[in-house]
Protein: Chaperone protein HtpG
Organism: Kutzneria buriramensis
Amino acid sequence: MNTPVETLEFQAEARQLLQLMVHSIYSNKDTFLRELISNASDALDKLRLETYRDKDLAADTSDLRIELVADRVERTLTVRDNGIGMSRDEVVALIGTIAKSGTAEFLRKMKESKDAAASQDLIGQFGVGFYSSFMVADHVTLLTRRAGEAAGTRWESAGEGTYTIETVEDAPQGTSVTLKLKPEDTEDHLYDYTAEWKLREIVTRYSDFITWPVRLEVERTVEDKTTREFETVNSGKALWARSKDEVPAEEYTEFYKHISRDWHDPLETVHVKAEGTFEYQALLFLPSKAPFDLFMRERKRGVQLYVKRVFIMDDCEALMPEYLRFVKGVVDAQDLSLNVSREILQQDRQIQLMRRRLVKRVLSTVKTMMADAPEKYATFWTEFGPAVKEGLLSDSENRETILDIASFASTHDAEKPTTLADYVERLPEGQEHIYYMTGASRAIVESSPHLEAFRAKGLEVLILTDAIDEMWVDSTDEYRGKKFQSVAKGEVDLDADKPEEAGDFEPLLTWLSSNLDSVKQVRLSSRLTTSPACLVGEAGDLTPTLEKMYRAMGQPVPEVKRVLELNPSHALVTGMRTAFAAGGHETELGETAELLYGMALLAEGGDLPDPAKFTKVLADRLARSL
Ligand code: ADP
Ligand code: MG
């Protein structure tokens, strides 16, 4: 018996996304069919997999397929599969809500960007899947029955705030989605999606590689007798099994969109065929845009595992390291069991070898791009550089290669980043260090006092502003024999100049060192030309940013005191020396030193420990100087 029809509300995020689809901002509406076929194909993959795992599953797997049936008179198009199907709860969870983390954030950005192109860009990045039906339909009916279950579920919606759902007795296994098409409107690129030629064209363009048969119901007239029959309209060839020269670029692109759920074209394709004792094929892609959740914790990896053309699992972490989590694609291994589990994969030696080869191929692809297609490389690095740099910490085997393909902002050029190779190339004779400074932004680093003497001497400094930079640079010793040296750490010995002799500053420095509690020591500086003071860390110390990061992660770290360096040619510093020599100004000098310390903190973009006190002392001083 059918249950009564229930009307339910879409989750708020889902409703907003649907709104966008109904008032379609995406210009290429044909892609709705790609999404529905893609879902049907996934459902068939899942069914096959589940029957391998569960021998008792009461499922019919005799003629697995996807069918397209159009009705010109009713203006409907049905896409159906006999795959895994969905239970009633699954329909509510999967179709009525959007589980992707970061959806709210995404929708907020979407709202902010008034410009249509930018919106398309965003939605492309997000991938709207099933909801794209509402670009072309004003009413959608989904009838589904999960393999092994007795009852089915009917879901209907006009894409507004609500949908109806009911349990039905007589539903075939799998899912059928029926679209009640909007009126035709060629101006708005809304074609007749009941026309045979159109459907054929879309399948060929977007879904040819789908390994399940996609059958289109066609009309055949033979000797005045009209019959309807199904005709397979896709070739179904696994792209990765074909040879590279045989696959047109567009097919790679559409395949990428199917597996990645990204609507943009990929930036680069990597096709690997390994023969020999352990045979496998891989088709990997570098996307052209970072997904919005690249740095979210639960972010999945993008490589699917197939065994002998059979889909085994999504986001196979055994095949790609975390720092290459943005790489999408398929790996098809010939000699694995269809029953492999994630645990087995993690430990399998051949899988580990395969992963090493694939990582090297991805990195060498970027290297080639760097040489042959600098603009593509620049896009890649802007989008994914911050993730790739994580590899400097986790993948010591490829550290050198990662350093080779990295690029960084530098004081050498205000616009163009530099590679380390180019930096080293420019080094003057005898310079043994690659100088760098970390900070929250280019502007903060550039105006920092630490940079003054380097700038005055024309020495190039790398400007590292990604959070990860603080960490890899700390643990990476050198590149091509040149050591990494922070301009904000340790004593710098800027060649020609002798390190400053304390001379007659000595008594002042000694006194300050023992009276200024916030710092480890007070000494003269050779890195300042115009600022009175700056703070520097000792070689092995945590930087303030790292200290903050560890604290934020809940790791206890000891408070790190730094060294206050004074500029011996600054009037404030020489004035302090004179006052100290004259004696009797200790309270005032202590205050001045605190102010100097505060100014040094502010100059590097840091936070004052006690802003109220700083402001009060400064205001008193200013008042007295009037
Ligand atoms: P995505 O495919 O990116 O997960 P979709 O919006 O296309 O997002 O689909 C949402 C979910 O609904 C799918 O992940 C799947 O679980 C379920 N689904 C959609 N279509 C089908 C189908 N034909 N058969 C079974 N499940 C489906
Ligand atoms: Mg989908």
Summary: The longest helix spans residues 349-372.
